[in-house]
Write a structure and sequence with these properties.
This protein is mainly α. The protein is built from 7 helices and 2 strands, in the order H-H-E-E-H-H-H-H-H. It has a two-stranded antiparallel ribbon with strand order 1-2. The protein is rod-shaped, with a radius of gyration of 31 Å.
């Protein structure tokens, strides 16, 4: 029976392609929603790809001499410190690289102030690396994960849409069978009623999923706003580190 149904769907599909079978249509509203879903899906995939590339670029680490991995800005700071410590304590250049002064910067909730020491150019860059690591974590948990949830929702919609098409073909195949029957057949009519009920069920499911995707915009806007706040805070903290460094920078 299952093989016969699959053959019936294939026969219906082939007949529609050849123009010999009638296809059950959908409303203009459904078509409009469907086009919107296609646009959303394509855009969401591009957004996710670009955001993944962005996160990867700002979180890419470099292997230091001690085999520890750090962000490029942190590695730069480590090299500055290592070279600065090779100079005498009286060396202004060495001090600027390492420990011209000691200052505490408070930043980010739940982060100890002692964690953000600025001791010359090297320490400043190590501090910026820690700021960047936290920014990567916030950007990932807000916008990137939001995009992943949206894509998962879109994947479920796509599967439901394929199921609807399969049931539509089965329904049209049953309808064609009834119309071509030379006499009434209870089994054929019962199959038609069953296929129609399944088709209508899937149609309602697809519409509901499309509406859910539209309504999910509210969460997407909130997640995008969180990403914006994280990016602003990241640049503000980096600027704060460098401004504090510059404030006590030795004048010529």
């Amino acid at each position: 029976m299952n093989v016969n149904r699959k053959f019936g769907r294939f026969k219906q599909w082939a007949g529609e392609r050849m123009g010999g079978e009638v296809k059950t249509g959908v409303s203009d509203d459904f078509k409009s929603l469907e086009q919107e879903m296609i646009c959303r899906h394509e855009g969401m995939e591009r957004l996710h790809k670009s955001m993944t590339g962005y996160i990867k670029s700002i979180s890419k680490t470099k292997e230091a001499e001690e085999k520890d991995r750090s962000l490029p800005v942190g590695h730069l700071g480590t090299i500055m410190i290592a070279h600065g410590e090779q100079f005498d304590q009286e060396s202004e250049f060495g001090s600027c690289l390492v420990s011209a002064y000691y200052r505490v910067i408070e930043f980010y909730e739940n982060i100890d102030a002692d964690e953000m020491r600025v001791e010359g150019m090297g320490r400043a860059h190590e501090s910026i690396a820690r700021v960047q690591e936290r920014y990567v974590a916030r950007a990932t948990s807000s916008w990137l994960e939001s995009l992943e949830r949206s894509l998962a929702q879109m994947k479920e919609y796509t599967a439901a849409r394929k199921k609807l098409e399969a049931r539509r073909l089965a329904y049209d195949a049953s309808l064609s069978k009834v119309q071509k029957a030379k006499r009434e057949d209870f089994r054929v009519e019962e199959e038609l009623r069953s296929q129609k009920a399944k088709y209508e069920e899937s149609n309602e499911d697809v519409i509901r999923r499309m509406q859910d995707i539209q309504e999910a915009e509210i969460e997407s806007v909130a997640d995008l706003g969180t990403f914006l706040e994280a990016e602003l805070e990241y640049h503000d903290r980096c600027r704060e580190v460098l401004l504090r460094l510059k404030r006590d920078w030795p004048t010529a």
